[in-house]
Amino acid sequence: MKDQFVIACIESAADAAVVLPWVHHFAEHLNHKGVMALHVESDTRKANSEKNDEWLKTLGVPYVSLQGDWRTAIEGLPTAFNGILAVVAVNPQAPRTSLNHPKRLLHEFKNCKTAYLCVNEHSTFNIQHSTLTMTHRREGKELLVWASYLARFLGSKITIAHPDYRDEGLRQRWQNNMRFVDKMFTPLNIEYTSATIDGSTREDLRTLDQVKPDLLIARTTDTRDRDLLDLLQPLPELRLLTHPSHTPLLLLNPRDDLYILCD
């Protein structure tokens, strides 16, 4: 019996068609993890529960169907379901009440303790080239851990993008972060390339536009660090989720208790 799972968070059979190929791919390559589908019926009317179960039974994977709310279920991914990665479909044209709508997705996943992969029907099923952005700010090592998984288990080439720092103090702090990258990657024999990004927009958006990766690993915004001006602007990750490239996004929330693989 599998002890860790890659979990498809789905609302419909259409979601499953988009998400399950990614779930199977990651589960197989991450040392043969288990696969599970999670469906949450937020409507308290139970008349549709049997109907929902019927389409879930056709998926060919173990599933859990709950009455309740998505946020509670998502917060329980690592503890209740032994999940190490969630995969969810994103669709900017979905109704605002749908989990697939970018704003609703970010709202429901904001307390998620695992990484979550956001894909859509136009995402290219190809992750030969994965990228993360390394800045002068304190970076969570979970970004680098997941980059190492993509390199070791899925054979993805890693690019680390960074701003073209002119300020010596900021450049020094970025260099300290890069030394930490080398400290993590060298013992694992992981090679990476660097890419300088320029421009005035948010770093991850610049990386998406200029590096054009097959998959972007990114941290969501730490709301504790947002000032009044930031609060008046859309979250940067919202723009990532609606980016016209349809690039798959592996998102990690800025938490002190994120659950990651131990392999």
What does this structure look like?
The model has no long low-confidence stretch (mean pLDDT 89). The chain has helices spanning 13-29, 49-57, 70-75, 77-80, 102-109, 141-154, 168-185, 203-210, 228-231, 236-241, and strands spanning 5-9, 34-41, 63-67, 83-89, 115-119, 129-133, 157-163, 192-197, 215-219, 249-252. It contains ten helices and ten strands. Strands 3-2-1-4-5-10-9-6-7-8 form a ten-stranded mixed sheet.
> How would a crystallographer describe the biggest sheet?
10 strands, mixed
Described by the principal axes of the CA atoms, the overall outline is: globular
- Pairing-aware structural class of the strands and helices? alpha/beta
- Portion of residues within helices: 25-40%
**Uncertain regions spanning at least 5 consecutive residues:** none
- The neighbouring-strand order within the major sheet is 3-2-1-4-5-10-9-6-7-8
Structure annotation, total helices: 10
Q: Name the beta content range.
A: 15-25%
How many strands in all?
10
Amino-to-carboxy terminus distance: 17 Å
- CA radius of gyration is 19 Å
Q: Order of helices and strands, N to C? A: EHEHEHHEHEEHEHEHEHHE
Mean of all residue-level pLDDT scores: 89
Short synopsis of the structure:
The chain is α/β, with parallel strands linked by helices and 263 residues long. The chain has helices at residues 13-29, 49-57, 70-75, 77-80, 102-109, 141-154, 168-185, 203-210, 228-231, 236-241; strands at residues 5-9, 34-41, 63-67, 83-89, 115-119, 129-133, 157-163, 192-197, 215-219, 249-252.
